[in-house]
Amino acid sequence: MKPDLRQALRSSLLTGDGAMGTYLYQQGFPVGVSYEEFNMIRPDVIEGVHRRYYEAGARVIETNTFSANAEKLAKYGLEGEVERINREGVRIARGAVGADAYVVGAVGSVRGGRRKNVRTAQVKKAFEQQIAVLLDAGVDGLLLETFYDLDELMLALGVARSISSDVPVICQLSAPDSGATQDGIALADAFGRLEAAGADAVGFNCVNGPNGILRAIDNIGGPVGLPLSVFPNAGTPDYVDGRYTYTAGPDYFGETARRFADRGARLIGGCCGTTPEHVAAIAAALAGYRPRPAEAAPAELGSSVTVTAKPRAAAAPASPDA
To answer: Is 313 among the domain residues?
Structure first.
């Protein structure tokens, strides 16, 4: 029986999955549609993506629910389908992977860095509805990701903790490598506030590829009291011959996975532009790897690191929203 996700984050190196939206795009599905709606209308497609990541070595699988809140779904006239989309997202992910994998409920920012006009009461209500369904559907934890402003991430974390004091919660900022969040909070202060509010792991996703997140970690200015979670994108996309392409390849992700681990990362996956091949490279790089003590995360993470993900063959490549 696998340990609780909170315990696993403190004692193991875990391989996360990769992008969903950009990978579906590369598979020929158009932009401008709700990929979350695929939980209802193309569950076979979503299940196939989850399975490819699992077979590539991922043992933390995100539900296809990143934008499955009422505010984001309203763009497609789907605000009345929040419960069904999220519940199906959990069911599909759980059915696609083995018992050794953790299924985490993916919750993205409502404001998304641009929708600043959404009132706080609306944002809170959207989080309450989505998170309550994900927890009721039986996720192993929550992954709050791609938050640009600390205030909104704190709001989402507060909602999660008001519903459950026990569920493991991972909080990821999409912050520049300047040492501060987009709303001007020093990263060390931001992570300290998240820890005090009940986060079990903190970190980054998206940003400017693996190197951008490495710089962000180095700019924190000191050790982080929690396990780090990192899901970098595959760099800034180029638009070539009518297609979005990403330049950071699997080999680079494999190489940087160990550098992340040496800086305290205990969950390492990929965001926009990453594919099962990227995940396979991460899993292979982490297999049997012991982070260097000089750069390891805080002592409470423990010195014995095991790897729960065993990589197998990877699948196809990927590319505009994780």
So the answer is: no
In a domain, 118, yes or no: yes
Identify the pLDDT of residue 115: 66
CA distance 274 to 175: 19
HSE at residue 194, side-chain half, CA atoms within 13 A, is 35
Q: What integer pLDDT is reported at residue 195 of this predicted model?
A: 98
Are 100 and 59 a contacting pair, CB within 8 Å? yes
Nearest to 227 by CA among 39, 44, 34, 13: 13
> What pLDDT, on the 0 to 100 scale, is given for residue 114?
65
- CATH number, domain with residue 192: 3.20.20.330
Place of tokens 């909104």: 152
What is the number of domains present in the chain? 1
Q: In this predicted structure, what is the pLDDT of residue 157?
A: 98
Q: Read off the amino acid at residue 287.
A: A
Low-confidence ranges of the chain (pLDDT < 70): 113-115, 242, 293-322
* Cα dihedral: 288, 293, 298, 299 (round 10): 90
* Domain span including residue 145: 5-307
Judge whether 319 lies within some domain. no
Could you tell me if residue 314 is inside a domain? no
